[in-house]
């Protein structure tokens, strides 16, 4: 048989699907994959339903319906004072992953080096390699997961075409401060590097923190591709509506890739997202407050049974560092044990590393109903001591 494309043929099933399948096989509570267990905002869902019944259902513009592109530009103008031309600097994609794929393929050519931070979202590396790029991996570490000048200096060089930067960071739940962004910006400008910024968690930040888009840092406006996701903003992860924002020379090429990936995105969902982005600021603050309440509920419960919880600054996730517990098992072994013995699924953070992995950290998703979190905590009450449930 003719050999298949090795970039993809040799890939394992994603850890998210593997752990979700393990949750199904064991009838476990799934705190692994990052999705809420409620249906999402009713008014936004009703806007999508109305647009389906009463609106246009044929091919929309490849770049996105004008109403949504205008809403995206207005939204970022309101929240970040970022001035975008909706017709030349904004594009709608079928989800954040497609937005990232279009951006990577638009920028990276064979032999280009691309700086990537581990823990790394699983789609980045295969697409970089499919483009012929060479990933240069940097290892972030708990508990801070911060960038350092020494770290960046070790990989940036004249061959560095792009850097992929996820902020807020999944799975580590870090919201990067301005000083880290300015540090990264200095290296991008020094080496004429394009920044592809995965900012899908931009609205899911807690405790009064502010998400700062790298594109707003001085010197980065024309060398940054900003990626967003309506699925994360509105807790509608199945809708797969993504945004790409960039200066016209960058966006034009990303659009040419997009036309041969998904080409366009369901118009009813686009109309509903346009409506959602126009909601008052209080909606977004209330969303953060409710998610922070769930975070605190799970944090308090895990700490009460002995888990060392690392502070979650954003995203749907919190992480636990198992190393102080002396369990004599890796994060992978721990996750396998708790899904089979305690019927709770989590994600081993080592799955986000390709080399030199951190093997002591486990990720839990807290964007669940109180009863779901409480049931999981009851099941995990003996896991920290290694006692098997009867």
TrEMBL record:
It holds the Pfam family Aminotran_1_2. Residues 28-380 form the Aminotransferase class I/classII large domain. Its EC number is 2.6.1.1. The keyword Ribonucleoprotein does not apply. CDD domains: AAT_like. Its cofactor is pyridoxal 5'-phosphate. One of its GO terms (cellular component) is cytoplasm. Keywords: Aminotransferase, Pyridoxal phosphate, Transferase. It catalyses: L-aspartate + 2-oxoglutarate = oxaloacetate + L-glutamate. One of its GO terms (molecular function) is kynurenine-oxoglutarate transaminase activity. It is an enzyme of class 2 (transferase). PANTHER family: FI04487P (PTHR43807:SF20). Belongs to the class-I pyridoxal-phosphate-dependent aminotransferase family. Homodimer. This is aspartate transaminase.
């Amino acid at each position: 048989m003719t050999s298949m494309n090795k970039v993809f043929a040799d890939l394992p099933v994603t850890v998210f699907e593997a752990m979700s399948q393990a949750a199904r096989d064991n009838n476990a509570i799934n705190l692994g994959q990052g999705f809420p267990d409620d249906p999402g905002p009713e008014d936004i869902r009703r806007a999508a339903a109305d647009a389906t019944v009463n609106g246009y259902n044929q091919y929309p513009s490849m770049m996105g319906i004008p109403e949504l592109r205008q809403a995206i530009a207005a939204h970022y103008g309101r929240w970040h004072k970022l001035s975008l031309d909706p017709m030349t600097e904004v594009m709608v994609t079928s989800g954040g992953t497609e937005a990232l794929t279009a951006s990577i393929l638009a920028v990276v050519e064979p032999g280009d080096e691309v700086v990537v931070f581990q823990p790394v979202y699983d789609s980045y590396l295969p697409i970089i390699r499919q483009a012929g790029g060479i990933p240069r991996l940097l290892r972030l570490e708990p508990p801070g997961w911060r960038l350092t000048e020494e770290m960046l200096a070790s990989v940036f060089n004249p061959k560095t075409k792009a850097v992929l930067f996820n902020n807020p960071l999944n799975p580590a739940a870090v919201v990067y401060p301005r000083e880290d962004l300015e540090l990264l910006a200095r290296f991008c400008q020094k080496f004429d590097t394009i920044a592809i910024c995965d900012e899908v968690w931009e609205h899911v930040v807690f405790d009064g923190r502010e998400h700062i888009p790298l594109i707003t840092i001085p010197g980065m406006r024309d060398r940054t591709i900003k990626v967003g996701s309506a699925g994360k903003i509105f807790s509608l992860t199945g809708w797969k509506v993504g945004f790409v924002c960039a200066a016209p020379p960058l966006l034009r090429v990303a659009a040419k890739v997009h036309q041969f990936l998904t080409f366009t995105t369901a118009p009813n969902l686009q109309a509903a997202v346009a409506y959602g982005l126009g909601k008052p600021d209080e909606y977004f603050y209330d969303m953060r407050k409710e998610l922070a309440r769930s975070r605190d509920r799970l944090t308090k419960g895990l700490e009460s049974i002995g888990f060392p919880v690392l502070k979650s600054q954003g995203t749907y996730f919190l992480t636990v560092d198992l190393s102080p517990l002396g369990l004599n098992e890796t994060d992978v072994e721990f996750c396998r044990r708790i899904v089979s013995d305690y019927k709770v699924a989590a994600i081993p953070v080592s799955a986000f590393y390709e080399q030199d992995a951190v093997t002591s950290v486990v990720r839990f998703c807290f964007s669940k109903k109180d009863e779901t979190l409480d049931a999981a905590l009851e099941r995990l009450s003996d896991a920290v001591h290694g006692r098997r449930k009867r």
